Amino acid sequence: MARHNTSIAPPLKWAVGKRWLIPQLEAIWSKHKNALLLELFCGGLSVSLGLQPQTALLNDVNSSLINFYEQIKKGLYFDIPAR
Ligand SMILES: C[S@@+](CC[C@H](N)C(=O)[O-])C[C@H]1O[C@@H](n2cnc3c(N)ncnc32)[C@H](O)[C@@H]1O
User: Fold this and answer.
1) Candidates 21, 22, 41: which one to mutate for ligand 1, based on the most atoms within 8 Å of Cβ?
2) How many CB atoms lie within 10 A of CB 70?
3) 58 closest CA partner among 73, 38, 72
4) Which of 1, 4, 53, 61 fits as disulfide partner to 37, beta carbons 3.0 to 4.6 Å?
5) β-strands 37-39, 56-58: how paired?
6) How confident is the model at residue 83 (pLDDT cuts 50, 70, 90)?
């Protein structure tokens, strides 16, 4: 199955991330691309970043995590030098 070539890698490594499921989810999502994607328990955001929905509702109980995403949305930029 072909990978979605606009898929974005999650900015954080998150325990039990679902990035590995994207090829299987794409097959289902491709029939519902105009729908609102609900990613509850969004954690590392791997599903939303992998499927690239037009609209998504994201939720997580971890307020520090949500704050991190809010800062990215506002333009936070960080450059981690390669070792
Ligand atoms: C296994 S991680 C999700 C991984 C994500 N699907 C991914 O692929 O990166 C589970 C997430 O659920 C969140 N969580 C746990 N209980 C929650 C609750 N009651 N409401 C919202 N989020 C919750 C945790 O903070 C954690 O980020």
Assistant:
1) 41
2) 11
3) 38
4) 53
5) parallel
6) confident
